[in-house]
Amino acid sequence: MTKAESKSLRDKTGRFKKGKPKNAGRKPGTKNKKTIDREDALKEYHQAMLRKMKPLILAQQSLAEGLTVVLRPSWVKNPKTKKLERQGELRQVTDPDEIEELLNSDGTEEDYHIISAKDPNVKALQDIFDRTFGKAKEQVELNVNTKELLGIQNAVEALIEGYKKNKKNGTR
To answer: End-to-end distance of the chain based on CA atoms, in angstroms?
Structure first.
C-alpha cells in the first residue's frame, strides 16, 4: 500500500476511517467471473439441446405412435381356374391411399394383415399432449357431510357472538 492510498483510508485525525472504502468491491450490477462463465456454459448447453430438439421430438413421436405395418399378399389370376390365387410372400403396403382402401374395404383377413411390431407408448403420447395443449385439469371428488359443516359453522358463529358480547362488556 502506498502512502497516498494509506492517507485516503484515514480521517482528518489520522485514524483509519470506519466502514468500507469508497470504491471498494464490485460495482453494483456487475457479475462475478464464475457467474459469467456458468451462464455462458448454460447458454452453450441450451444451444446444443435446441440443435438436437427435432430428432428428440421425432423419437418421442415415434415412441408414442408405436410401429404398425400393413402387409398384403400378392394375388395372381390362375389361367386355368380363372380364380385369384395367392402367390409369393406378403409385401408391405406403404401407400397411405392403399392402406385406407384396404381398411375401408369389406375384405377378409386374407386380403391384408395388420401387424403391430411395437405397441404405442401411452405415457409418451400423454407427455406430448401435455406439452402441446397444457396439462388436463384433474377432477377431485369430495364427499362432505353437510351436517358436520353446519355444526362447525354454528360453533364458530357462537364464538364470534360471545367475543362481541365480551368486547362490549369490557371483559374477555
So the answer is: 69
pTM: 0.35
Beta strands in 15-112 (DSSP E): 67-77, 84-93
Look up residue 16 and give its three cell numbers: 483509519
Rounded Cα–Cα distance for residues 133 and 159 (Å): 48
Closest CA to 92 of 80, 109, 74: 74
CA 154, CA 145: separation in Å to the nearest integer?
A: 15
Contact 112, 68 (CB under 8 A): no
Nearest to 90 by CA among 114, 72, 69: 72
Residue where the block lists cell 375401408: 104
Report how far residue 113's alpha carbon sits from residue 73's, in angstroms, rounded to the nearest whole number.
9
50-100 per-position pLDDT tens digit: 888 888 888 888 888 887 788 877 777 878 887 877 777 787 887 878 777
Could you tell me how many helices (H) and strands (E) the chain has, helices first?
A: 5, 3
Cell 497516498 -> residue: 4
Give the total residue count for the chain. 172
- In degrees rounded to 5, what are phi and psi of residue 33? -60, -40
Give CA–CA dist 137/122, Å, rounded: 18
Closest alpha carbon to 61 in 53, 49, 69: 53
